From TrEMBL:
Keywords per UniProt: Lyase, Metal-binding, Queuosine biosynthesis, Zinc
EC number: 4.-.-.-
Family statement drawn from the similarity comment of this UniProt entry: Belongs to the PTPS family. QueD subfamily.
Cofactor: how and how many bound: Binds 1 zinc ion per subunit.
Protein name per the record: 6-carboxy-5,6,7,8-tetrahydropterin synthase
Class of this enzyme: lyase
Cofactor(s), names only, from the UniProt record: Zn(2+)
Gene3D superfamilies: 6-pyruvoyl tetrahydropterin synthase/QueD
Domain of life according to the entry: Bacteria
Pfam families: PTPS
Catalytic activity: 7,8-dihydroneopterin 3'-triphosphate + H2O = 6-carboxy-5,6,7,8-tetrahydropterin + triphosphate + acetaldehyde + 2 H(+)
InterPro entries with a match to the protein in the record: 6-PTP_synth/QueD, 6-PTP_synth/QueD_sf
Pathway listed: Purine metabolism; 7-cyano-7-deazaguanine biosynthesis
Length: 125
């Protein structure tokens, strides 16, 4: 099994209503997102997937979050835009792309909301 990981970034604001602390107020982060994909086979170039193509697919999802107030986005109307929910949202959005429904699978998505705080979403199975 081969695994590829890319790093992407976006900036966005959010707030966590009912949170018992400062995060209940409007604030922002410079989010970092690590996406790891895996595959068993290499293409004719000796790659599971071109890093450029993976970055492009992740970029499409990140663009829907970048410089937004996350609470206003449809995906977060019914759930708090926590790092956990953002990681799952990115994973699910990528999993819908046809490129990740064949030989290449998304292994996990890790979201960093600060240099020392991250969440990793890796579904079982």
């Amino acid at each position: 099994m081969y695994e590829l990981t890319i790093l992407a970034e976006f900036e966005a604001a959010h707030q966590l209503p009912d949170y018992p602390g400062k995060c209940c107020r409007l604030h922002g982060h410079n989010w970092k997102v690590e996406v790891t994909v895996a595959g068993h086979e290499l293409n004719h170039l000796g790659m599971v997937m071109d890093f450029k193509d993976l970055k492009a697919e992740v970029g499409k999802v990140i663009d829907m979050l970048d410089h937004y107030f996350l609470n206003d986005l449809p995906a977060f109307k019914t759930m708090n835009p926590t790092a956990e929910n953002i990681a799952k949202y990115i994973y699910d959005s990528l999993a819908e792309q046809s490129i990740f429904q064949q030989a290449i699978k998304i292994r996990c998505v890790q979201v960093w909301e600060s240099p020392r705080s991250a969440v990793k979403y890796c579904p079982q199975g």
